[in-house]
Amino acid sequence: MAHSIIAPRILCIGIPVRDLTFCVEAVPARGSKANATHLAEICGGNALNAAIAIARLGGRVSFAGPMGDAQETSSGFILERMRSENIDTSHIVRIPDATTPVSAIIIDATGERTLTIYRDPALWTVELPDADKLLADCQAVLVESRCASFCTDLCTEARRRGIAVIVGVDRAISLQDGLLTAASHLLFASEQVQETAGIPDDGEALQRLAGLTPAFLAATRGPRGTIWLNESGELEQTPAVPVQAVDTLGAGDVFHGAFTLRLAEGGGVRQALQFAAAAAALKCTRHGGGLAAPQRVEVEELLNMPRGTTLGRMPRL
Fold it and tell me: pLDDT tens digits for 60-74?
């Protein structure tokens, strides 16, 4: 699979999180206890998981967004991991007296995850660095939808400069949300596209939103693949790669990162969706959230396998 000799630079915007993940046979009932079979302390957050995926797949990544006070411990842990993944952290803004988000995540035997997270309200007061600094030598911007309050203007400026803006939507957004029209590509999850459009059908929901935004629209549906609208407004589907899932945490984020990178390399949306499906599938075969994102060679090998091949469980990273 050919791609650009010079790796594209992608700006990821979001709020990093420190994740404590517990693997259990079943999610405990209210008021009960359960013994975990595995514990991992990792870094996470939608945009950060995507950034890790982009870096491992061959892209150059810069990260912008808020983190807690320079003296609190979670941010130091996350920054160390980001640097080890070759992610540029120079655009991260530290918020005095604030706390970097922390989440507790329970992963059951099917790979499904349940989580709770604390985000300090002070983080939403962040002011990002100047657009000229953030967008210099930038081929694409990938944004968490929850960050609209502090990045919509930057995304609008990126589009004015002809830079693709991909928004990963993992929760319902308002039909008046500025990112709805500032984005060039909107990647929803199934539940969120239905809730956003107010229609209990993925395809019909996408078609309704198409009347509100010029952006490319798609909805990921886990093992059922991705449904999306082509340039003619017709629904198409990209199948998922069959896997024996052990951990779905971060799979959507890896999908978003892989899609963004392949698009920035010059691939069309069909190619980008296939590439993203393969990357997300590989991630699901091993524990580790975004830190289980695959390397480029793994994705390309998978894409060259016979159609219908089912991936088994991979070694834990």
Answer: 999 999 999 999 889
Contact 108, 27 (CB under 8 A): yes
- By three-state DSSP, how is residue 165 classified? strand
Burial of 37 (0-12, 13-18, 19+ CB in 10 A): exposed
Non-local (6+) Cβ contacts of 111 within 8 A are 245, 246, 247, 248, 284
**In the block, residue with structure tokens 């329970």:** 106
Query: pTM of this prediction?
Result: 0.91
DSSP type of residue 124 = G
Q: Classify strands 87-94 and 164-169 as parallel, antiparallel or unpaired.
A: unpaired
> What are 119's two structure tokens?
């985000």
Query: Around 3, how many Cα atoms within 13 Å sit in the side-chain half-sphere?
Result: 21
Enumerate residues 6+ apart whose C-beta is below 8 A from 183. 143, 155, 159, 165, 166, 167, 213, 215
